[in-house]
Amino acid sequence: MHKLLARAVTMLMALAFSQTLHAAEVGDDGLHKEAWFTITFRDIADDIAQAKAEGKRLALTFEQRGCIYCAQMHEKILSDPEVRDYIAANFMVVQYNMFGDEEVTDLDGETLTEKTAARRWGYVFTPTIVFLPEEAPEGKTVAEAAVATMPGAFGKWTFLNMFRWVREKGYERDEHFQQYHARIINELRAEGRLGDEE
């Protein structure tokens, strides 16, 4: 009995240590920082080209200091190895502060700050994740060019499936994201892989 208890404690400690290794740090701006997020000059056209050169897609995440849903996204969703590893392998994620002053160059060449970009593009919720096309279109804003937008916090499978749907270019097909998501959920249920994190 003591060996079983000692083994359980050891496993729990290892799990806690593993989760600590992947926990996002909070920066001076109050935003959670993932080690695999990309820091750029926030020139959207250049970022799209860089992502493509790396075989990835560009995703922008808008967050703000004190956002409990942003914290939940980092602590519960992005800390999950299945989610984190898929996104890091397939997307270049650039973090934006909803009320930040860093300079941003929109696709149409207009120079903004993070906060004026969020206002111009109509993003009012945090977190909001914006998915950009593989090629930078000329004369459009980010909001006009985005192939998908995910406003708010969701559970693991909705979150991960949106990234998969974009990577698989579901927006170019007839299967709406909600249909795609329902199909994947049914497949996961059939495999017995679905917990309460739907």
Describe the structure.
Keywords: Signal. It comes from Aquamicrobium lusatiense. Pfam families: Thioredoxin_2 (PF13098). With about 200 residues, the protein is of the alpha+beta class. It has a domain at about 25-155: Glutaredoxin (3-Layer(aba) Sandwich), CATH 3.40.30.10. It is built from eight helices and eight strands. The longest helix is centred in the N-terminal third of the chain and has 20 residues, at about 1-20. The protein is globular. The relative contact order is 0.13.
| Sequence of secondary-structure elements | HEEHEHHEEEHEHEHH
Shape: globular
Just give the CATH class of the domain at 24-153. Alpha Beta
Please summarize the sheet with the most strands. Answer: 4 strands, mixed
Q: What is the helical fraction, as a range of percent?
A: 40-55%
Summarize this structure briefly.
The protein has 198 residues and is of the alpha+beta class.
Structural topology:
Layout: H1 2-21, E1 25-26, E2 32-33, H2 44-53, E3 57-63, H3 68-77, H4 81-90, E4 91-97, E5 103-105, E6 111-113, H5 114-121, E7 128-131, H6 142-145, E8 148-151, H7 156-167, H8 177-191
Parallel strand pairs: 3-4
Antiparallel strand pairs: 1-2, 3-7, 5-6, 7-8
Helix pairs in contact: 4-7, 7-8
